[in-house]
Amino acid sequence: MDEPLVERMRAYGETVFAEMSRLAAETGAINLGQGFPDTDGPRPLIEAAAGRIRDGVNQYPPGPGRPELRTAVAADRAERFGLEYDPAGEVYITVGATAGIAASVLATVEPGDEVVLFEPMYDSYAAVVSLAGGVRRPVPLRPGPDGRFTFDPAELRAAVGPRTRMVVVNSPHNPTGTVLTRAELEEIAAVCREHDLIALTDEVYEHLLFDGAEHVPLAALPGMRERTIAVSSVGKTFSVTAWKTGWVMGPAPLVRAVQTVNQFLTFSANGALQLAVAEAITGEREWVRGQRDALQAKRDRLSEGLDRAGFGVLRPQGTYFVMADVRPLGFEDGLELARALPHSAGVACVPAQVLYDRVEEGRHLVRFAFCKRDEVLDDAAGRLVRAFAS
Ligand SMILES: *Cc1c(COP(=O)(O)O)cnc(C)c1O
């Protein structure tokens, strides 16, 4: 048979995340590549889900999601940000943020439409824009002298043209850890309003904020609620990345568009998990705060180890990733270092360059995940120090 994969997806082979996890397994390296916690989420959340399954919540929930969860999500948004969404037509439950993002792009981007994205970018964005037949217009995030990544508003404006349909905004940002400020978001909002663009916001790290950083939803800015599809999910917030329970929030016409596509992708998401999450959104706030504080300490712990090993550490304000520059170690290419590291040091990371359209922008950067137990982070740091600094 000829190549069975459609032409527009041929650039997407095995992801480097899978390659690095496989390398870690083969070499017995500590895997700080793929980002998933090595401890469980809050016990009551897990017990509630198990109880719901035992109690027989095992058939299709409504396509848009269980009303209990849609109501809880809307109430939480209203309370924290003053953003009002009608649970009946403006909140829609998806199989993780991934499905919400995919359905949003497939529902609104015509073949040939352009989508502006900040790079480095979460890997699913590039693939789903290709799947829709859209064209990516990347805007680089670069670290300033303080190590914080941000964009140049002139480069954002230069990326927008007559075919631009959408801007994708991920804050807190994976992999750089940047939490966009209100002023930065206002630059993006102004461009969206002037060019009548749809904003797709990925807010899955909305609770993982350090040093008092504040999460501002783009939809909260003037003129933005009516044009924004906001996506979030439970995986990062509650350390349950396997649960794949997320949501899309927006004005009814946009949410209807997403629903039209998503009903044929997954139709609905796991109902028992939805009921458990509906309670945890308010019931586990204290746990989420504790988790955030623990992650801030883990950031410091791993950053200090990377620094001692000789990496150029670019300190994140949120998420559970830290970016590191490999050039101080005498390397030019993060991919080369990431492929060697499991063998030479017994630690796996991911090369950030695979998250860029313009590879040169991120050639020298690698990403480490710090959502791991302290002893694992200390072990990894010790291995890196021994490999490079002694
Ligand atoms: C993990 C992650 C997702 C995927 O979320 P799910 O709810 O697991 O589908 C989406 N966006 C970013 C930036 C992520 O890091």
Automatic annotation (TrEMBL):
Which is an annotated Pfam family here? Aminotran_1_2
Q: Which cofactor does it need?
A: pyridoxal 5'-phosphate
Residues covered by the Aminotransferase class I/classII large domain: 29-383
Sorted UniProt keywords: Aminotransferase, Pyridoxal phosphate, Transferase
Entry-linked InterPro entries: Aminotransferase_I/II_large, Kynurenine-oxoglutarate_AT, PyrdxlP-dep_Trfase, PyrdxlP-dep_Trfase_major, PyrdxlP-dep_Trfase_small
Gene3D superfamilies of this UniProt entry?
Aspartate Aminotransferase, domain 1, Type I PLP-dependent aspartate aminotransferase-like (Major domain)
E.C. number, please? 2.6.1.-
Keyword Transferase tagged: yes
The protein's GO terms of the molecular function aspect are: transaminase activity
Entries under PANTHER family matching the protein: FI04487P
What is this protein identified as? Pyridoxal phosphate-dependent aminotransferase
